[in-house]
Write a structure and sequence with these properties.
By secondary structure, the chain is of the alpha+beta class. Helices cover 22% and strands 33% of the residues.
Length: 181
């Protein structure tokens, strides 16, 4: 889960990203891997089961860049088909954030470099039935392609001459059948 459209104005204290995914099959959750850079301050992930029960999966109230790692669950949560996995990250791009690498703060957008920002919460899951693996893969791949398209479109707003991003976006349009764009 995450966002590829991050765009945090200088001085913004409470920038939020959220994402969700509804499981098309029953899964066992093995691990979680939170990923963000220096402006993230809080992270939360949870599962909303089909009966409405909210099951916490991750809570970090004071994020530290050094904590990017895979964390395995001692007891693997079972998540039935129809469960919504959700996440919410909070960022602080103000001068009062001691983790902010920019003084004074500057606009920060999505990217892989440490001076840019990311917001991903990766989960490692295993379908309960082996024959459901391909359904899960295809369903999530469709969600991820949509997120990548949105991300490249957003990035090209500020970097319109980035030919690598233009090419990547064009390839994604072709994959999804959006040839007219």
């Amino acid at each position: 889960l995450g966002s590829k459209t991050i765009d945090i104005e200088a001085g913004a204290e409470n920038y939020v990203i959220e994402d969700r995914y509804v499981l098309p099959v029953d899964v066992d959750m093995l691990a979680v891997y939170p990923h963000a850079h220096y402006l993230a301050t809080e992270m939360e992930g949870w599962a909303k089961l089909p009966d409405g029960t909210r099951h916490p999966l991750l809570r970090i109230s004071d994020w530290n860049f050094a904590w990017q790692d895979e964390y395995r669950y001692d007891e693997q949560p079972f998540l039935p088909k129809g469960t919504a996995i959700e996440m919410r990250f909070l960022y602080d791009n103000s001068a009062s954030n001691p983790g902010n690498p920019s003084d004074p703060p500057v606009r920060v957008t999505y990217g892989w470099q440490a001076a840019e920002e990311m917001g991903d919460l990766w989960f490692q899951v295993v379908p309960r039935r082996s024959e459901d693996w391909m359904l899960l893969y295809r369903d999530f791949s469709s969600k991820e392609r949509t997120a990548q398209i949105e991300g490249y479109e957003k990035q090209l707003e500020t970097q319109p001459k980035d030919h690598e991003k233009q090419n990547a976006l064009g390839n994604l349009y072709l994959e999804t059948g959006e040839k007219e764009k």
